[in-house]
Write a structure and sequence with these properties.
The protein has helices at 3-8, 41-50, 78-87, 109-121, 126-133, 137-144, 155-161; strands spanning 11-13, 18-20, 31-34, 37-40, 57-60, 73-76. By secondary structure, it is α+β, with helices and mostly antiparallel strands. The chain has a two-stranded antiparallel ribbon. It has a two-stranded antiparallel sheet with strand order 3-4. It has a two-stranded antiparallel sheet with strand order 5-6. Strand 3 (31-34) and strand 4 (37-40) form a beta hairpin. The model is unreliable at 157-162 (pLDDT under 50).
């Protein structure tokens, strides 16, 4: 029997998922031996359907680890897999540390407003502001151009909105 026929003979096809009935690795994923090598069944199904062995990981649209139905499988990256997991409610994204909540923040929102005001006044250079606040000149440039601390509005904008 050739590997494709042998592989598909171990699949129970339903209207939804195609269930792998062969061996498994004990981690919820089926396995299949071909040419003296063990493959995950879903990766081998993808190979048989597409004609190429995937370089990345294989994502299951159905979230069924023993499904080998080709139209339920797609190639992706680990990042794709994690984002898919978050969108399906099976994990919690890491917290985003923004501004003062970032563990390495050296500035406060008030200080950021002061730096922007002082720079906009034209009386201070970025280097002078960097020395005064104990940060690098590049960091000051990013602050005044709103490349960092973007969530901090200028006082004029905040007052106008109030």
């Amino acid at each position: 029997m050739i590997p494709g026929e042998e592989f598909w003979s171990r699949v129970h096809k339903t209207d939804g998922c195609w269930i792998w009935t062969g061996g498994n690795r004990g981690n919820g994923y089926g396995t299949f031996w071909a040419q003296g090598k063990r493959y995950y069944a879903h990766r081998y199904a993808y190979y048989l359907a597409s004609g190429k062995m995937p370089e990345g990981i294989i994502l299951h649209a159905c979230d069924n680890t023993i499904c080998v139905r080709p139209d339920h499988l797609s190639e992706g990256t680990q990042a794709d897999n994690v984002i898919d997991m978050w969108h399906k409610g099976r994990g919690v994204p890491p917290p985003r540390h923004v501004g003062e909540s970032h563990p390495y923040a050296k500035l406060t929102e008030e200080t950021v407003r002061q730096i922007r005001q002082q720079y906009d006044s034209g009386h201070y250079t970025q280097s002078e502001l960097a020395r005064a606040h104990g940060i690098g000149r590049t960091a000051v440039g990013c602050v005044v151009r709103h490349e960092t601390w973007r969530h901090v509005g200028d006082p004029q904008t905040t007052k106008a909105a109030a």
